[in-house]
Amino acid sequence: MIDTTQAFFEHLAERGYEPLLHSISGTIQWKIQDAGNWFVVVKNGKLTTSRNMAQADCVCECSKEDFDRMVMGKQNPTTLYFQGKMKITGDLEFVQVFQRLFPDESLSGVEQGKKESR
Amino acid sequence: MTMSDRTISILEGNNFVVSDLRGDIDASPTEPLGLFAWDTRFLSRWLLTVDGQRPNVLSTDDLDYFYVQFFLVPGTGTIYVDADLSIIRKRAVGNGFHEDLTILNHKDQPVDLKVRIEAAADFADLFEVKDALKKKGEFYHRVENDRLVLGYRREKFTRETLIAASARADIDEHGLSFAVHMEPHGEWTTCLEVVTGLGGFGEYHEETTYRHGDQRARSNVKMSLKKAGEAIPRLSSDWPSLQVTYHRSIIDLAALRFYAMTLPEHALPAAGLPWFMTLFGRDSMIASYQALPFGSNLAITTLRALAQRQGTRIDDFRDEEPGKILHEARFGEMTAFEERPHSPYYGAADVTPFFLILLDEVERWTGNAELARQLELEARAALRWIDEYGDRNGDGYVEYSRRNKETGLENQCWKDSWNSILFADGTLSRLPRATCEIQGYVYDAKMRSARLAREFWNDPALADRLEKEAAELKRRFNQDFWLKDREFFALAIDGDGRKVDSLTSNIGHLLWSGIVDEDKVEAVVRHLMGPRLYSGWGVRTMAEGEGGYNPIGYHVGTVWPHDNSFIAMGLRRYGYREEAARVAMNMLEAATYFKGRLPEAFAGYPRELTEFPVEYPTACSPQAWASGAPLLLLRAILGLEPIGDHLIVDPAIPSTLGRLELLDIPGRWGHIDAFGRGRVDTSVVGGKLQPGTL
Fold this sequence. Notes:
The complex is a heterodimer.
Chain A: H1 4-15, E1 25-33, E2 36-43, E3 46-50, E4 58-63, H2 64-71, H3 77-82, E5 87-90, H4 92-98, H5 105-108
Parallel strand pairs in A: 1-4
Antiparallel strand pairs in A: 1-2, 2-3, 4-5
Chain B: E1 2-3, E2 7-12, E3 15-20, E4 25-26, E5 34-37, E6 40-43, E7 45-50, E8 56-64, E9 67-73, E10 85-93, E11 96-105, E12 111-120, H1 126-129, E13 138-144, E14 147-154, E15 157-165, E16 170-172, E17 175-182, E18 187-198, E19 234-236, H2 240-255, E20 257-259, E21 267-269, H3 281-291, H4 297-308, H5 333-336, H6 351-366, H7 369-374, H8 376-390, E22 434-435, H9 436-455, H10 460-480, E23 482-483, E24 488-489, E25 492-493, E26 499-500, H11 506-513, H12 518-529, H13 561-573, H14 577-592, H15 607-610, H16 624-638, E27 641-643, E28 646-648, E29 653-654, E30 659-667, E31 670-680
Parallel strand pairs in B: 29-31
Antiparallel strand pairs in B: 1-2, 2-3, 3-5, 4-7, 5-6, 7-12, 8-9, 9-10, 10-11, 11-18, 12-17, 13-14, 14-15, 15-18, 16-17, 19-30, 20-21, 22-25, 23-24, 25-26, 27-28, 30-31
Helix pairs in contact in B: 2-14, 2-16, 3-4, 3-6, 3-16, 4-6, 6-8, 6-9, 9-10, 9-11, 11-13, 13-14, 13-16, 14-16
């Protein structure tokens, strides 16, 4: 079975460039309980990932269950933060833009860009 | 700060205190008093007693938007007894509030008093305040380290109010008691610190912004009016009321500045004080647009903040769609737990085209090509939204129908009350609705985006396509929305394809957008300035005589200053200079009845009936787009229009104003002065003598 967390970050690395993140540059650290650390370096939309880095501009901490729910489109990142279940330290502007990557369409089966069914 | 008959409000950003004129907070469902921050009430009770009696108020002084002083005497049942004690409360809001409580003994003898502050917090979400909904979490309180902690917890969501005093106090879970001894002509004082704590939210403060004795704006140096690089143009005229209104507008827009969590260094205008101190797509952009000739920083920050939160996914609950610009952002418990959709909520169909309009307008004023390039992808996403999601049925018009049927908005245009889009016989139109002014905005947005594509995005093919689409939209709109027999544009086309045939102010926005064919302009102007729409103070939202008309109906008969400021600009756009001057003058006259602070709306009664404008009771004052209205009206009568690197000044000034000067207008030209002499006799414009001259 595919691990959702791992698959999310692997997809980011495969993508290499994400236009939704064109406006930000920096490093985000995801500290996911029971899944360890993931780092994503963004340079005007260009993406690289790593499991091990010294520093990050912002750190997001949450449970693996909540993270996977965000990936699958079952949890909104903003309300997870508002509920106190995701801790963010550092550059909030970066996180605000980064959260556009949720959900991961290929994992959630939710096809974005489709019109409302009528 | 703002004062009504019974309450007084002070604020810093989204942190505000609404108390009675004594400084007390005793919240009830009908009296929404309290200390609020991030859409949560952190104090619902804050009562001062001296020997068990609540004091009487002598005076309440509003010294600044964040600071207030209360002068009180002990309660004796009547205020006509000479008091031998004075009580002074000085309060400054910021991360909670700091209150200095001082008691003066005027007697020749020593005195012992029992002073008590009762405190309680219901941690109500703003959305709950009026509905008195039951809380789903648990309350707690504890006394620790010489402070009282009032708390609320729901899963990992926690909110705490921390209360401490500098003087010795007996602290229990309902408040603080002081045993006060004063010598003859002595004085006793204590500081009271109330800190608002938001657990896990990056907003947990240990201290208030203001300390003992602070009366000067501190952290909000950034809120001071004359920020470096943004000096306000100087205005003078022969009609002194204009300066009053101008300064009121500038000060109110400063007090309405709001700092988004993600852009803490830059201000944008919130919608209204105090309940709407948050980012609204529509209100924030409209106020920024109105203020552009006077400074561009608000508009630039608004565009950036909205671009950051642009929709990227389909989310029925939030009415979110890729490329859509948000309607409203909130931070309280009901938003956090998805009982309300404001995280953020995207239920507005006009704001996405307006985003493109504002982006172009900012470049025209400032020459800020960098911003136009930085937001290119967001602008393209907004254009895609218009065609793919805004136009839901592929008929070429943007129509709206909420995805969120429970808590979403039924009307996603500026007239957003549920019963605003009515047929002439008063019946309600069906969803989805394509209101006319949104089609105008789309036309304008495409024309302006074509310019941006050609000049900044290096995409002439896109520019050609957008201009072609805009021309086609204009051609079809002038056929499909025009009511031949009544000679005006339908308010909307509804879900059954019917023309919603009420005469409304929306047709004025069409002039502003430029979507109106020349052969129809004269009729539109005749309606706008005619007695059914024109009240004498301004254009009504709905014309007298329509089935749904109600002079005190929120969007069906009242007069809205921001609406009229756009109409005045529309009249100017099509060369109706004198009509624009009349709309501007009448609205500026109305402002004199409100000490220069125009309300959000006033009643649509004919001017000759009431002789003064009757304020529509709304919860918020000032409102950003009402404060911005006089600024846009000034632009309309001075005829300010950026063309290339120049600012065109083409005045058509009401004669009442005499000589009008606006000096140091900032923009890509540096600074330019505009002046002109009042030559338009607005009492005879529009074919009908104005009341007062009859």
